[in-house]
Amino acid sequence: MQFSSQRLIRLSICAALGAVSLAASAYDGDLKRGRLYFRQICTTCHQQMMGKAIAPNERLKADWTAYIKADKHDKTGKSNPSVKYFTTKAYRETIKGSNKAAEKLLNANDAELYADVQAWLQYSAKDSDNPSGCQ
């Protein structure tokens, strides 16, 4: 089977456009926004409810990955047990009056915000190049 040069060019362009659209659809997370969310929402709540914040550098990358994959925030069942829930608009709606970050990020895309927090946790984990506390 023989391809003409025009057909090869068209196929090459289609392949390049497909690769660009796949790359554009991948979202790696915004570290700045993940840091803001974790520190202003997660840390604030943990300090209020437990008297102690949980810092990213208290766990290894693998620990954070397992925690996110398990999607179990509260094993006691006293509050919403899903980690993912705490990055949803529904949750942000419940705290927007008392938390300026929740109000600011109220209309953020839930999936992207969840990815932002995950990216921050990986970036700041104990075994990362940038271990970070909550201050």
Question: Layout of SSEs?
Answer:
Elements: H1 5-25, H2 31-50, H3 61-70, H4 89-95, H5 100-104, H6 110-124
Question: Could you characterize the architecture of this molecule?
Answer:
- By secondary structure, this protein is an all-alpha fold.
- It has a domain at 31-124.
- Helices cover 58% and strands 0% of the residues.
- Helix 3 (61-70) runs antiparallel to helix 6.
Number of strands: 0
The average pLDDT score comes to 83
The total count of helices amounts to: 6
Q: What percent strand? A: under 5%
End-to-end C-alpha gap:
65 Å
Overall spatial form: globular
Largest sheet: none
Q: Order of helices and strands, N to C?
A: HHHHHH
Secondary-structure-based class equals: mainly alpha
> Radius of gyration over alpha carbons?
20 Å
Helix content: 55-70%
Q: Which blocks of ≥5 consecutive residues have pLDDT under 50?
A: 19-24
Concise structural overview:
With 135 residues, the protein is mostly helical. It contains six helices and no strands.
Task: List its traits.
single chain; 135 residues; mainly alpha; 6 helices; 58% helix
